[in-house]
Structure prediction request, 268 residues.
Amino acid sequence: MTGMRTALRALAVTAAALLAATALSPTAQARPEPRAPEEFVALRSVDPTIIQEMRYTTAHTFMGERVDGYRQPVCILTRPAARALHLAQKRLLRQGYSLKVYDCYRPQRAVDHFVRWAKDLDDQAMKGEFYPLVDKSRLFEDGYIAEKSGHSRGSTVDLTLVRLPALPTRPYRPGERLTPCFAPKDERFPDNSVDMGTGYDCFDTLSHTDDPRIQGAQRANRQFLKRTLTEVGFVNLPEEWWHFTHKPELFPDTYFDFPVDRGSVGRH
Prediction:
């Protein structure tokens, strides 16, 4: 009997030790999410008048689903980039326009999601709208998808112009009929922005800011946006009329992975 009690006590001690080890193991506990450095802010705290339509929190993306890491529709940027947008917005409001942001800081896990999707050649659910003329197998080669994004450094933003007063944009309904992103404005997915010649995230050479096929009011709108942002320190990516990076970047070599939500920024 004594031997049995001794064995049971030994088992209990062993079990307790295992539980303690598990409790202390970093892989056994949910690790706290990383937070943004103090140089990051929510754009709304700097300029609440800038319209925010954070597409990657919705299913209206080139993947047809919400993107990993986008938990709340909040635009997060480095403070200098946010302040520069505020300056541009002040000038635009006097002319009857507003900026509208589609995407701001983008966590690395979101970029990883893009890469996984691009490698799945069978998933072409949103091809009819976002890449009608591009073979999905060429998305990496043609530069539409990459394993790193400047957005993850915090000073890059995707945006457009809206003529005021801004009309509401209806929500995307999953499964609805898709229209090519370069179709005439009154045919493609409705957006309250001015006509830029293509929709946002249009994987097509027509999205190149200075594509010679874009003329008239569409070209003028692109140049108006580019000129306004250039004046406050942004540089346009020539392949995407909507893509701008504030220079100099605070974090030119760092790719962050904190989630997009209000809890990621604020007091530290």
Summary: Helices lie at 2-24, 43-46, 79-93, 108-119, 127-130, 216-230. The chain has two domains: 1-31, 40-264. The CA atoms of residues 206 and 213 lie 7 Å apart.
